[in-house]
Amino acid sequence: MYDNLISFCEDKKLFISDTLKYNRYWDWNISVTELLSILEDDSFNYVKRNYAQAIEDACERWKQVHSNIEENKFDYNNYYSDSLERSSKNKLDKFYLAYKQWKIINSITILSSEQTFVKDWLRGTIDAITNLWVVDYKTSLKENEKYCIQVAFYCYLSWEENWYILYLSKDKYKFVKVDIQKYMPIVLELIELSKILYKVNKQENGTITE
Question: Can you list the positions of beta strands (E) in the chain?
Fold first, then answer.
């Protein structure tokens, strides 16, 4: 039982949490991001403990880059200015230009953005459905297989099967196809495990409450 999940965690030096932590939506669903928190990474926990501000800054950058993409927002004055007070926005505009480069080179048309899917008790929001692929954005060039599992969850929740991750930086992008079939067994095992954790946490220590 959970052979695929255990093998993945051993290979990636992750450990499986014995607690399912989440804040329910009004419709009682759990998000894909919250469910993935079952897979814990000691190295990332160390970063969170010792570099909290850097993590907060990265999250804020992620939100702003996504917002700029959704709003098709680019400030030419910021981008071409050398003013120090504009430097932060300048970096965000460079992320946006990498995104635009990806769209032009691959002849991409965005059909829908931030579309939410719900299935069973899970909820996931997809960054973009395009004329060619479904795409999840990441504001880093560092590839991570947990992202692939996240995307496989989105596939499980929707009818879409052709998935890519768009890794963005202020200088360039990487466009990586996700092998959904490779990660789907892990997704299914995580779903089953989450149901067990929910029951155990509720009965034994009240971690999850109605």
Answer: 15-16, 30-31, 39-40, 110-119, 122-130, 134-138, 163-168, 173-177
Cβ atoms 40, 14 nearer than 8 A: yes
**Between vectors from CA 170 to CA 165 and to CA 172, what angle results, nearest 5°?**
55
Strand 39-40 with 15-16, pairing: antiparallel
Q: Residue 174 in contact with residue 136, Cβ under 8 Å? A: no
Tens digit of each residue's pLDDT (9 = 90 or more) over 108-131: 999 999 999 999 889 999 999 999
Domain residue limits, the chain: 3-61+109-204
Q: Summarize the confidence of residues 59-73 as an average pLDDT.
A: 76
Strand partners, 129: 112, 134
Decide: pTM greater than 0.85. no
| Closest to 127 measured CA to CA, from 143, 111, 140, 141 | 111
165 vs 176: CA distance, rounded Å = 5
Q: What is the distance between the alpha carbons of residues 167 and 63, in angstroms, rounded to a whole number? A: 15
Structure confidence by residue, pLDDT tens digits, 174-209: 999 999 999 999 999 999 999 888 888 766 655 444
